[in-house]
Write a structure and sequence with these properties.
Layout (H helix, E strand, L loop, with lengths): L51 H11 L11 H17 L3 E2 L6 E11 L4 E5 L5 E5 L4 E4 L6 E11 L5 E2 L4 E2 L10 E5 L3 H5 L16 H11 L3 E5 L2 H4 L3 H8 L2 E4 L12 E5 L1 H10 L4 H8 L7 E27 L4 E11 L4 E2 L8 E2 L2 H19 L6 E8 L7 H8 L8 E7 L10 E4 L7 H11 L3 E4 L13 H6 L4 E4 L10 H15 L14 H19 L13 H14 L4
Parallel strand pairs: 6-9, 9-10, 10-12, 14-17, 14-18, 18-21, 19-20
Antiparallel strand pairs: 1-13, 2-11, 2-13, 3-4, 3-13, 5-12, 6-13, 7-8, 13-17, 15-16
Helix pairs in contact: 1-9, 9-14, 11-14
C-alpha cells in the first residue's frame, strides 16, 4: 500500500536528455521470452478451494528474498510477473491484453543523491542546512538529472488546498511562481476535528501528499515541502525515509503531461519546528490557524537553495492481466486487482536490505490468484472477469492509472472493481472493514454475504490516514467505476477487537514499508479465506446477474458513473 500516491491522452515517447539505462530484464517481447532470471519452483499443489495452504504458498514465494522486494524493473520484477503470469496460465485463463498477459507501463526512474542538502538562509546571515534522510527527503518528478534552486522565497500555505466546492483556497491572492511552499499533511478537517470542514477527521484526497504536490505544480511553485507528523500522515518518519529514498518512479511527461514540480519532498517535524522558530513563528499557532476559514499564507522570511542531482533512467514495467471470458455477455466485466510491486532493495541499509512486502502486498496478489482459481473451477460466468496485478502502486498508483487511461475493457463496460491490498493475517473476525464505507451500492451486495459469515461491515478504524486514496481502486473510482476496497476485520472471534487493532498498530509502527514486513509461518490465514470467499461471492453475483451498481447519492464519483450509464443505455438494449 502506497505511502508515495497519484491524481489523457497517452503516447509512447522517451524523455529527452535522460541517461538511457539498460532495459529491465524480460521487457516486452513474446510472452514466452525469458532471460536468465527464472521463477523459483513452488513445491505446492494448489487446490480448487480458497485455502490457508494455498495462500501461504503464494505469499511465502512472492515475499521471499529471491524476489528482491519486487521493485519495478530488473530481476525482481521479472521473477514476480513471470510467477503471476505462470499462475494465470496454469489456471487456463486467457491473456488479458490481446494475446499477452502483460500491459507495458512506461516509467521514469529517478534516484536522488543521498548527499543532497537544503540550505535555508535568513536576511541577517543566519542559515540552516538540512540533511537528506535525517531532516528531509527530496526528489524530482521532472525527469531532469539536475535541478538547481537558488534563493527561492519560502511561504507557509497551510494545508496547500484549493477546493472551490468547499469554498477553501490556501493560495488565494498568492503568486507562488518560483517560490517554495511549505504545508501541513492531511487536510483542514483533521486537526480541528470539525465535521463541517471537509470530512472532519476522515482524510479526503486534499489531505494526500500527492494532491498537494499536484496543486503546488499547478500554482507554479519551484518546490514543495510537506511537514511530517505521525498522526497526520498515518505513519512515522522511518516510512518517509524508506519510501522516498532510493529509486522513485513516475510516468513520463509525454505520457502524463500534468504539471510537475522541479523538487518535492518532506520535512521532518523537528526540522520544520526549527525552521519556523528561526523565522520568528510559532508552528503550533500556525497549525491551528491553518485549520480555520480565512487563513492567509505566511511568508517565512527565508530563502531555500539546493542542488538536486538524480540518476534518471527511462524504463518500462508491467501490469499482469488475465481474462475469464463470459459465456453470455463477454463485453461486460468486473475487475479483481492487487498491486504486485513493493520497495525492492536498499543497499545503503545496514543489515537486512530487502523490503519483502509480505503483507503489503503479497497478501493481495495471493487473494487475486486464489479467487481466480475459485472461478475457473466453478460454472462459467455470464459476464467476463478480469484478474489484474498492477505495478507502481507504491510510486503513486501509476500502473492502475495507466490501465484506466488505456483499459482493455472499456470503463463503461466495467461493472465494478474489487481491490485487495495489505490484509491482516490475524485469523477469523466478527467484522469486515470496508475502507470508505458508505460510498457505493457494492456494499449492499457485500453486506448479506458477510452476514452469512457472521460478520458485520465496519468502517476503517483510522479514517484520518486516508486509506481510500492510497490504493489502486481510487483510479477506477475517479473514472466513475464503483470500487470496493476491503481490509479484513479487527474484531477477532476469540481475542476481541483490541487484539486486531493492536496488530494493525504494531504493523504500521514497526513493519510497514520496512524490511521487517516478512512472511511468518505462524500467521493465521483463516480470516483471509473468509475475506476472499466473500469477495468471490460478491463478484459472482455481479457476473451472473445484469445489475450495474452505482455510487450512493451525494458521492463525489456518482456524476461520472451516471453519465456513463446514460450513454450506455442510449446505445445498447436493456438486458
Amino acid at each position: 500500500m502506497t505511502s508515495r500516491l497519484l491524481p489523457l491522452a497517452f503516447a509512447a515517447a522517451l524523455l529527452a536528455g535522460c541517461e538511457r539505462g539498460p532495459a529491465p530484464a524480460g521487457q516486452p517481447g513474446p510472452d514466452a521470452d525469458r532471460d536468465a532470471a527464472t521463477t523459483p519452483t513452488v513445491d505446492h499443489t494448489f487446490g480448487p478451494e480458497i485455502s490457508t495452504e494455498d495462500l501461504a504458498a503464494h505469499i511465502r514465494t512472492l515475499s521471499s528474498d529471491a524476489f528482491e522486494g519486487r521493485a519495478p524493473g530488473g530481476r525482481g520484477e521479472q521473477l514476480t510477473v513471470d510467477y503471476i503470469a505462470d499462475q494465470f496460465r496454469r489456471l487456463g485463463l486467457e491473456p488479458g491484453n490481446g494475446d499477452s498477459y502483460f500491459q507495458t507501463v512506461p516509467m521514469v526512474e529517478s534516484t536522488a543523491s543521498s548527499a543532497t542538502t537544503l540550505s535555508i538562509a535568513w536576511p541577517g546571515g543566519e542559515a540552516q542546512t538540512l540533511a537528506f534522510g535525517t531532516d528531509m527527503v527530496l526528489g524530482t518528478s521532472s525527469g531532469q538529472p539536475q535541478v538547481l534552486i537558488e534563493n527561492s522565497d519560502m511561504v507557509f500555505v497551510g494545508y496547500g488546498v484549493n477546493a472551490p466546492e468547499a469554498d477553501w483556497n490556501d493560495y488565494a491572492g498568492l503568486d507562488v511562481r518560483g517560490k517554495t511552499v511549505v504545508m501541513l499533511v492531511n487536510d483542514p478537517g483533521f486537526a480541528s476535528g470539525d465535521p463541517a470542514l471537509f470530512q472532519g477527521r476522515r482524510m479526503t484526497y486534499y489531505g494526500r501528499w500527492s494532491y498537494k504536490f499536484e496543486e503546488a505544480a499547478r500554482q507554479g511553485a519551484a518546490a514543495a515541502l510537506v511537514i511530517h507528523d505521525t498522526p497526520g500522515a498515518g505513519y512515522g518518519w522511518e516510512v518517509v525515509q524508506n519510501s522516498w529514498s532510493g529509486k522513485q518512479f513516475d510516468l513520463p511527461i509525454a505520457v502524463d503531461p500534468a504539471p510537475r514540480l522541479p523538487a518535492q519532498g518532506w520535512l521532518s517535524g523537528e526540522a520544520a519546528a526549527t525552521l519556523f522558530a528561526r523565522s520568528g513563528l510559532d508552528i503550533a499557532q500556525l497549525r491551528a490557524a491553518a485549520g480555520q476559514r480565512g487563513f492567509k499564507p505566511v511568508p517565512l522570511g527565508a530563502t531555500l537553495s539546493t542542488e538536486l542531482n538524480s540518476t534518471i533512467r527511462d524504463g518500462e514495467s508491467r501490469n499482469v492481466m488475465a481474462l475469464l471470458r463470459g459465456s453470455e455477455r463477454p463485453d461486460e466485466a468486473i475487475v479483481y486487482m492487487a498491486h504486485w510491486d513493493h520497495l525492492g532493495r536498499n543497499e545503503e541499509l545496514a543489515g537486512d536490505q530487502i523490503f519483502n512486502g509480505a503483507v503489503d502486498n503479497a497478501t493481495g496478489v495471493a487473494g487475486v490468484l486464489e479467487i481466480a482459481e475459485r472461478y475457473v473451477t466453478a460454472p462459467p460466468p455470464a459476464r467476463s472477469v478480469l484478474f489484474m496485478a498492477v505495478t507502481l502502486e507504491e510510486s503513486g498508483l501509476l500502473g492502475s492509472k495507466f490501465y484506466v487511461a488505456q483499459p482493455t475493457i472499456p470503463l463503461d463496460n466495467t461493472v465494478a472493481a474489487v481491490n485487495i491490498d495489505a490484509l491482516q493475517p490475524i485469523g477469523r473476525t466478527r467484522d469486515m472493514v470496508v475502507v470508505g464505507l458508505g460510498n457505493s451500492e457494492l456494499e449492499d451486495v457485500l453486506r448479506p454475504v458477510a452476514a452469512e459469515q457472521g460478520r458485520t461491515l465496519k468502517v476503517e478504524s483510522a479514517p484520518e490516514k486516508g486509506f481510500y486514496y492510497r490504493s489502486d481502486h481510487f483510479n477506477f473510482a475517479k473514472a466513475g467505476v464503483p470500487a470496493l476496497y476491503t481490509k479484513g476485520g479487527s474484531d477477532h472471534v476469540e481475542k476481541g477487537e483490541a487484539y486486531g487493532l493492536e496488530w494493525a498498530r504494531a504493523y504500521g509502527a514497526e513493519r510497514y514499508h520496512s524490511p521487517r514486513d516478512e512472511f511468518d509461518p505462524s500467521w493465521d490465514l483463516t480470516g483471509m479465506v473468509d475475506d476472499f470467499n466473500a469477495l468471490y461471492r460478491v463478484g459472482r453475483q455481479l457476473v451472473d446477474g445484469d445489475a450495474w451498481p452505482n455510487w450512493y447519492e451525494g458521492n463525489e464519483f456518482r456524476a461520472v458513473r451516471d453519465a456513463a450509464l446514460q450513454q450506455k443505455a442510449g446505445r445498447t438494449p436493456a438486458h
